[in-house]
Amino acid sequence: MSESKAPKIPKWPFIVGDVVLLLTAFLLLNKIEGEFGLLEAFWCLLCVGGGAWIMVLPFLKEFQAETDLTEVKELSASIEKVDSLELLLKRVENATEQWLHVEDRANEINVTSKEISDKMNAEARDFSDFLQKANDTEKKHLRLEVEKLGKTQKDWLQVYTATLDHVFALTQAGRQSGQENLIKQLNAFQLACREVARRVGVVAHEVQSGELFDPEQHQLRDADSKPKDGSKIIGIAAQGLSFQGRLIRKTVVVIDGENLEGLSKTETKKKT
After folding, report:
1. Residue 238's closest CA among 218, 265, 212?
2. Are 253 and 232 in contact (CB under 8 A)?
3. Which of 105, 109, 239, 244 is 20 to 30 A from residue 264's alpha carbon, by CA?
4. Rounded CA gap, 8 and 153, in Å?
5. Domain locations along the chain
């Protein structure tokens, strides 16, 4: 759309009127004879002023038209701005309504999320309690099983050690009998029993006569007796036992009585 402009006023009629008035004033000046009075001055001034006014009038009209057009344009721009503001206001109202709707939905979602979160927390607590109870129950069962296994292990270990002790005592008695065949049979029987015990981790230990006393591996029948360093073993009273590499009983040995640093309390009482 082309920009509207103010209408142009033809200026030639005004120029003609101005020229006519100026010529009139000039003729009046030429025709006056004698003194130049007030009347003549009034008419000359009227003609010159009228010509000036006629000459300025079209420019004033054009300026007025430009001014009116400018006001109309500003008013139109103001109306467009007002329309734009109204449109913007409607958009703001729509956006506000949508935002309120979104806020309501967000609040609903928040409430729903909180309910779901509470349910999940409650289920998590219940599941944790269930796992804790199951864990405690399992621990109790395992503890009972371990205690049962420990008791069972202790029972059969006592059975094995007692059996090996009886077999050792029987073998020692056979050796004292001096019968070769009986000694061989009892030694073979003892080896077989020890081999069976060794398969479950029970190992018997013996020492030979003439070996040096080792307090880490050997002990005396009288715990209060203390042998001298370098004491030699002359006999064995009870075999030593170890279970799965752990020493559970030292070998009870007999050493020469002259190598003892002191007598036991029992022997001292007997001598007294």
Report:
1. 218
2. no
3. 239
4. 128
5. 201-264
Model confidence pLDDT, tens digit, residues 58-112: 777 777 778 877 888 888 888 888 888 888 888 888 888 888 888 888 888 988 9
User: Can you tell me the distance from the alpha carbon of 236 to that of 229, in angstroms, rounded to the nearest whole number?
Assistant: 18
Neighbour tally for 261: CB within 10 Å: 10
Distances (CA, A) of 166 to 169, 171, 181, 194: 5, 8, 20, 12
Q: Considering the domain 201-264 in this protein, what is its CATH number?
A: 2.30.22.10
How much is the pTM? 0.43
- Helix axis angle for 38-177 and 12-31, nearest 10°, is 150
Length of the chain: 272
Burial degree of 247 (CB within 10 A; 0-12, 13-18, 19+): middle
Q: Could you give the C-alpha distances from 26 to 15, 22, 185, in angstroms and in order?
A: 16, 6, 180
pLDDT per residue as tens digits for the range 100-151: 888 888 888 988 988 898 899 998 988 888 888 888 888 888 888 888 887 8
What is the C-alpha radius of gyration for the chain, rounded to an integer number of angstroms?
Answer: 69
Instruction: Specify the amino acid at residue 103.
Output: E
